[in-house]
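Data availability (excerpt). The following record was deposited with the supplementary files.
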Amino acid sequence: MRTTGSRPFRKMLGTLPLALLAVSGCARTLPFAPRRDVEAHKCELVQTVMHQPSPSLAAQQIVSEGRAGQVPVVVYVRHPDQSMLERFFQGEPQCGDPTFRVVQENVVDAVVVYLQEVQGGYAYDARRASPEQLTAEAGKPQGTLKRRGASWVSVN
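Predicted structure:
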């Protein structure tokens, strides 16, 4: 009977697709580590912004009105030449500290941080806003942060 001789061949054919799936699955997970590092650097930037005077004051106003817990913060990158806002974080961000947490969806009352790329860093402005008050128009920035070594510093 020829089927006994072809059994190893059939097993190999049966496992080949599984091996290809495993290899392609691993190939898709490789970018996760670099993406996680990028998101961590973004979080450092937002934490630095939120400790600047204007963003910190906007968060304190929300807390002073009785909001319990962390203040929601939504972060956008402005592209005024295209009249466009782009979310700063990919997916659901894991960014915050005891006083604030970054969220993707703007809730009724949040601190909205607008970032605009400048040479070597970001200009920012932040204000308390609701979803209906978002704007792609760039006003006067409240400050600028640039990367100095491993940290972000204000260069106002």
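Summary of structural features: The mean pLDDT is 80.
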